[in-house]
Amino acid sequence: MKVLAVCLNPALDREFVINGFTLNKLNIVPNELNRMTPGGKGVNVAVILSKYNIPTILTGFVGGYVGNVLVSELRKVGPLLTTSFVHIRDETRENIAIEDTLNHTLTEINSEGPFITNEAYELFLKRFEVLVQKVKVVVISGSVPRGVPLSAYGELTNIAKKYGKMVFWEARDEIITESIKIAFPDVLKYDMRRSEKILGTYLEREEEYINAAKEFIKRGAKLVILSYKTIFDFVATAEGVWKFSPKFEIDHSFLLGSGDTFVSAMILSHLEGRCCLDMARYGYAAAVAKTKYLGKEPPKREDIEKTLEAILVERVE
Amino acid sequence: MKVLAVCLNPALDREFVINGFTLNKLNIVPNELNRMTPGGKGVNVAVILSKYNIPTILTGFVGGYVGNVLVSELRKVGPLLTTSFVHIRDETRENIAIEDTLNHTLTEINSEGPFITNEAYELFLKRFEVLVQKVKVVVISGSVPRGVPLSAYGELTNIAKKYGKMVFWEARDEIITESIKIAFPDVLKYDMRRSEKILGTYLEREEEYINAAKEFIKRGAKLVILSYKTIFDFVATAEGVWKFSPKFEIDHSFLLGSGDTFVSAMILSHLEGRCCLDMARYGYAAAVAKTKYLGKEPPKREDIEKTLEAILVERVE
Fold first, then answer.
1. What value does the mean pLDDT take over residues B196-215?
2. Residue B276 CA: distances (Å) to CA of B208, B246, B314
3. Which residues of B touch A95 (CB under 8 A)?
4. What is the pTM of this model?
5. Region at A313 (left for phi over 0; alpha for psi -120 to 50; beta for the rest)
6. CB B112 to CB A68 under 8 A?
7. Would you kindly state where each structural domain of chain A is located, as residue ranges?
8. Is pLDDT above 90 for B196?
9. Span A3-315: which CATH code?
10. ipTM of the complex
11. How open is the CA angle B155-B156-B159, to the nearest 5 degrees?
12. Least CB-CB distance to A110: which of B26, B68, B109?
C-alpha cells in the first residue's frame, strides 16, 4: 500500500434527475436518471488514486444501511482500493441532489450525518496508527463529523509524523485553524468552496493571500496552496510564492471534483519523485485538465502532461 | 404457517420531515426526522397479521440495495413473519415522502420501480406453488411491477385453487379486470384510493355499486367489498348486499393504512372461524378503529370488538 486516505465523514451521493420537479406533488424518478456514487473528499481522493494505479487504503467512519451501500460501491472500484472503516451505529451521510434540467434548479436534501462516540473515535485513532505504518503518504481530506474534534487532522498528523510519513491536508478553515495548533502537514491545501476565510479572516487582496501562505510556511508547512477567485492558486514553499493561472478560459460549471483531482495528482507526482513547486504544478495542471469535461473520472495522464503547457506559473515573492 | 401474503411490488417507504422545504436550496433532514419503513400493501398486510400473532410468509420480488434494506427491516418485525422473496437485479421501489409541517406540503419522490424479467416471474410462480401448499390462506394485495402481467392475480389464484386454498385480493381496477378473466378470489376487495372505477367504468350512484358487487358474486367471488365515498362500503355475498357505515365521524387524515387493516382483520376473523358477512363486519370495524389514531400500528383486538358496536350494517338488497 502506498497511500492512506482518511475520510472522516464519507457520504453516499445520490442524484435524481426529475424534470419539472414540483413541491406538494408526486414526482417519479426514471431508473436511468437515479444514480448513486461514493462521496466525501477523502473518498474521492482514494478513488482517483486507485484509478491512477496507486494502491490506497481508505479509512474513516461508516454506519447503517447507507454505510453498507457505500462500502459495497467502493468494492466495485477495483482491487487497488482497500477499505478499513470503523463501523458506527449511526447512518452514514446521504446527500440527495435533485436536478431539474427543465426549470434549472438543484434541490439538495442532505442527512444530518452521524454522531461519532468517543469510543469510536478512540478505536479509529488506534486503527489509524496501525494503518499509517503500512504506507508512504497520508492524505486527510474533507469535513469532520459531529463528535470528532476539529483538531482531529492535527492529532492524526502527530501520529503519522511519529512514523516519518508525508502528510497532505485539504480542509476548511475551521478544521485547519484548530488542527495546526497540534501539528502541521507537509502539504496544506485550503478548501475554499464555501468561504474565502483563512484563520478566521476573510481575505480579498492578492497580497493578503501571499502573506497568509508565507505565514503557514514559516510555521511548519512545506507546501501551501490557497485557491484564489476559484480558478487561480497561490502556492508557497520555503523558496518563495507563486501564482498559478490557466492560459485558457475555464468553464466554471465543470469545476466539480477539481480540488480532489488537484490533491490526488500531487500525491501521484510526489510518489513519482517530484517535489515542492513541481508537485503543485502537476496538481494544478490536473485540476485544470479536469475542468475540460463533466463527470467524476479523473483526467488521463496525457491530458495532464499537455495541460502543464497551458498553465502560467509566475513568481510573486 | 397460516397465511401466504403476496406483495409483487414491495417498497421501502422513507419519510423526511423538513420544515421549510425549499426548491433550489440545500435542505437538511435531522436524524430523528428521517425514517424508513417497509411498504407495499401486501407487505403491510403481512406485518399486521404477524402482529396479530398469525404466522405469515411474505413473498414477491426484491432487489438491489433498497431490497436489502427492506428485507433487513422486515426481519426486525418479529419471528412470526418469514420472507421468501425472489431476488431480482433491479432496485426495489423507494418512496420518499418529504413532509413540511410549516408550509403544509407533502412532496413525494418515487422511484420508477423494477422491471421483472420473464425468468424471474417464472421462478416466482414455481416458488409460489411450493409456498402455497404450506398455508391455509393466500392474500394478494397491491400493485404489479412492470414486466408482470396484470392477470398475475388470476394466475396465482389458479395455482392456489389447485390446492383448495382460500384467496383474498385487494387491488386496483386494471389488475382485477385482467385477473378475473383467469380466476376469481374468494374475497374481492377493490382498492379505490385513486379512482372510483370498476371494470373500466366510473361509478357514482349507490345502485351502480350494488349492481357491480352482485355481478362479481354471480361470476364467482364469495365476498365482495367495494368502498363507497371513502368511509362506506358495499358488501355482497350470495345472500345479499349490505351497506356499512360508521356511527361516528371519521377523521379523514387518519385513513392511511385502514384498507390494509381491513384485509388483515378479515383474514384474522376467518382463521378464527367467522364467515362471510361477519368476517367483513370484523374487517370494517378494524378499519374504522384504525382511523381513530395516526401511525402504522394495527388497532388492538379490544378496540376492534368495541368498534363492532359503532358501525351500522344495513341490508340494501
1. 94
2. 22, 19, 15
3. none
4. 0.91
5. beta
6. no
7. 3-315
8. no
9. 3.40.1190.20
10. 0.88
11. 95
12. B26
